[in-house]
Amino acid sequence: MHSAGPKLVYNLRTYSPVFVKLLQVKPALAVLVHDSLGNSIADAEVRLKGRKATYDPVTQTYRLKKTPRKGLLTVSLNGFTLFEKLEMEEGYTYDQSFISKVIHAPPIRFIWRPFYDVYNSLRWHGPQGWVGRVFSLFDSRYRRSFSSKYRGYLITNKPMYQPGDTVRYKAFVVEEDGEPVKERVLLQLSSYGEQKKSLGEMQPFREGAYEGYFVLHDSLKLELDKSYTLALFKPGKKEKQYISGSFRYEDYELKENSYTLALKYKEHQAGQENSLMLRGTNANGLNLLDARVEVALLTKEVVSSEAPVLFIPDTLWVHQQPLDAVGETIITIPDSVFPKASLNYTVTAIEQKFYGYLVHQRSCCGTRLSGGAV
After folding, report:
1. Is residue 4 part of a domain?
2. Domain range holding 131?
3. 3 state SS of 328
4. pLDDT mean for each 10 residues of the chain (374 residues)
5. What is the pTM of this model?
């Protein structure tokens, strides 16, 4: 929420620990429930118009034998309930008035339909109806897609990535009759105006199910501020697409991430080790993945010294390590890095992505007392 002149501007966002994908395999409905990392959730309660869906461990989806044309889907997990409105899918019939039935009945519809398709083609700036079928004779882009014979999903663990991030994906593909695809597939990455990039072939780890990961390295030669399509293809001379998903590639700063940094002891004696506790989380409260930290222990002020002459460097200690994926990351500061003196020090922690992309920097202060200090 923020102000823009005399107006108050706000938007409503939903932060959910569960995510839902609907797979329409007529007449059945398959509901995929997963977390923000793409891991399927098997212990949720899924209901549609009061009817409870059963979990299928083979496809890792919740199944209903017959799908209502519309209704409210509820997914409950650990006291949290997500509501998803089920819209009528194209192809289902609906109740029509008498006049509408007459207009759409043959042969009357054959009179006005050609003109309606021309009108829609001009309105949407693309061939519609019979106009599209005429275009398909000369341009393969308007022909029936091979992928329309298949159902499923392809999801990534995030909707947006930075250079150097790791893209983790999962996919599930079934044929029109619901039979899972069993063949090896080709994974490709593409974007408008760029040549397709092949990421290799893979076998399903279970019938119809595929998963893997790849790093957005400089060798892929991707362009920033663009959307990319990740798709599974059937290998061969004429590659045919099964299913696809997309993500955004930007050099952005995660403004909704939060970071904590604290010392176990603000003041400690010589011979006593101190610890540094850090954590980086996203807007959902989950630990940041693929992140590391660089810690620097710096001299702030020398209070007293046990020796008449003692050299004390500005930087007492430097340490690097990845952030833990669960809970706080605890780093022990060895007592041996401190000189024989009482001093105040500063700990600076730079949390960053792999490949050196800076995320955040925080500092905290502490005091170390030597054995001779009072």
Report:
1. no
2. 98-142
3. coil
4. 63 74 68 81 86 85 73 84 69 60 82 88 78 72 56 89 90 86 91 86 91 90 89 81 88 69 89 88 76 88 85 90 88 90 88 55 79 51
5. 0.39
